[in-house]
Every structure is written in C-alpha cells, then in structure tokens.
Amino acid sequence: MVRTTSAEKLASIADAATVEFGRVGYRRTRTADVARIAGISSGSVFTYVRSKAALFHLVFLYGFGRLDDVALPLVAPPVADIVASIQRELRRIPNPNLRAALATDEPADVRAELRGIVEESYAIFERNWRMLRVIERCAVDIPELEAFYFGSLRGGYFGQLARYLDRRGSAGLLRTMPDSAASARVVSETITWFAWHRREDRDADIYDDDVARETVIAFICAALVPEASR
Q1: Who's near 202: CB < 8 A, 6+ residues apart?
Q2: In this structure, are residues 159 and 188 in contact, taking their beta carbons and an 8 Å threshold?
Q3: Is residue 81 part of a domain?
Q4: pTM of this prediction?
Q5: Which of 14, 61, 77, 207 is most buried, by CB atoms within 10 Å?
Q6: Is 1 a domain residue?
Q7: Total domain count for the chain?
Q8: What distance in Å separates the CA atoms of residue 16 and residue 191, rounded to the nearest whole number?
Q9: What's the pLDDT tens digit per position in 68-119?
Q10: Rg (Cα) of the chain, in Å, rounded?
Q11: Are 188 and 157 in contact (CB under 8 A)?
C-alpha cells in the first residue's frame, strides 16, 4: 500500500484549491469541492487549513514555493496581509530583458532585443498562469487584490512595454503604430492567449507548446521589426 505524507496531501489540497479558485472565484469556492478534487473527505481539509481564507493563502504559498515549515493547520493572516504577500512575490518575478531595453537608447540588435522581451514575457505567463488565473477570478471578490493586480501590476507592465515600443518606434528601429499603448496590449494579449488562456478551454491541446511559443515570438518580431533592421 502506498502511503502519502502530510506534505504530499498538503500539496494535493493546494493544487485542488488552485483549480477551484481559478475556476469559480473566491466567493463561490467551497471547501467540499476542493476536498472532492483532492480525493479526500471534507473534514480532512480542516486538518490542513482552518478556513477557506487559509485555503486561499495556501494556494500562493504552494505556487510560490513557500510551503517549507508551514505550521498545520494553516491559519490565514488578514486579507490585506495575504494580498501584500502576493504583491511581494509577483514583484520579485524578474523581467531583466525589458528593464535592460528601457535603460538603453541604442540596442546592438533590436530584433534580438525584442525577441528577448517576448520570450521573457511568454515564460512568465507560461510558468505562472494557474496562480494568475486565481488572482483574476478572485479579484472581483477581494477589492484589495483587484486594486493591486488590475490597477497597479498590469497597468505598470503595459506602461513599460508601451514606452519601449514608442521609444524604438521613434528611433526608427521598430515599426510605428497609431498608438503605442494599444500596440503593447496587442503584444501582451497575443502572448497571454497562447501561454495561458488557450489552456483553459478546448484549444488546450490543439497547439504544441514549443511550436506555439516559437510562432508567437516569430510573429511579433516579424510584425514590428522593419526589414532593414533584421
């Protein structure tokens, strides 16, 4: 008989909670449904977490690799503290390629620079899409989360990408578009659909992951880099 450890059960519960919070949001998630997905009894969930808020907190401890030395049953901190911890972890995700591009006016190879930015962004969404789905679904029920994610984090990223496209377009290194903010959104939505949103519906298995990634990168570079700059 295969025995599961407490750590394995905790990870199983966290994975099930990630699925359910990401599917129906915070208010509609029930611990009984999480237990069913995890394959345990409803009462067993409370051996590991004290409340639904603690279950929500567990999703991000698990997603960010912070489950070491967690005291069980897990007790949820105040909502503001949970959101603050999510904010700290998301801001730690590095995007050195975009930062480096914004710090220089004369790239040695603008196509390589753009490719690096797109690859970097694709990898971030591909790696973290399950947690980001939880954030987006639950933000409607948690105002502090909505204010941070939609008002600060996403807006800041779109702003950085728009500044990059505007500066390279003004220098004649990338094609100029009618509006750099809209262009940044087109680039980002193309990346997020293939790296993340297609996985949530029937299109999940239509495209090979590696082929989809390379196609998106090649497509954006071909659209924005003039022939003379290639």
Answers
A1: none
A2: no
A3: no
A4: 0.92
A5: 14
A6: no
A7: 2
A8: 26
A9: 888 999 999 999 999 999 999 999 999 999 999 999 999 999 999 999 999 9
A10: 20
A11: yes
